[in-house]
Task: structure prediction
Amino acid sequence: MGALSILNNISALEAQNSLSNTQMSLNSTLQALSTGQRINSGADDPAGLAIANGLQANVTALTQSVQNATDGVGMLQVADGALSQITTLLNTAVSLATEAATGTVSDAQRGALDAQFTSIKNEITDIGQNTTYNGQAIFAANTLTVFMSDSSTAGTTTVTVGMVTVDAGHLNGVSLTADALTTETAAVTALTAINSAIADVAALRGTLGASSDQLSSATNVMGVQITNLQNAESGIMDANMGTETSNLSQESILQQTGIAALQQADQMQQSVLKLLQ
Result:
């Protein structure tokens, strides 16, 4: 049996240290259970926190990139819808030109057909100039750039789509501005130009459609990446609720026994005083 001392209560100090360590572990366990996260501060797992933060940056960038691609697809769909309307107008123009080219139509009637043709050309120009997306004209001689990234240089992709001016004088290489239906010969010439315009507009729609498919595919790929990255982040950050619950029970018991041990150590110190009575 060790000597009794009134200067230092070693047993009480050891019990207090153990109780303090238990309280720290208990606090950490309670925080993990309340937040659902294994890492709640840099002290919990510095390396794991750094990796998880990097994964969060990847997810954030990819999530915005999905929105960028979705916006790009939306713009191209609006463009395709406008070109579809133009194709419908051109098909009507084919009918007018075919009618004007026949010899059974009078000059007065050709004048009326030409007036309709002029109205169609004006409407085509209006569609080309007034079709917008997010306040910006779609059919302008510029390049639509869709930026997609996971926040790293290696994981960055840019899809560029060449946009063109669309009006009666610019139908992807064909101009109908000078065409008229006032004579049989002019109507035949106009018919050839209109058919060429229909083919060229179809080619433009095909080009825009391919770009739209590319963006949609990129969106699907990024969606899978986001899911995988979130799973990886979850594996690092998420608390194991079963393990933490077990730890809570263990640490609660240790806390109770630690308090009891500290009380017992204090009572042993009091016993020294009894020897002086």
In short: Residues 10-36+241-275 form one domain.
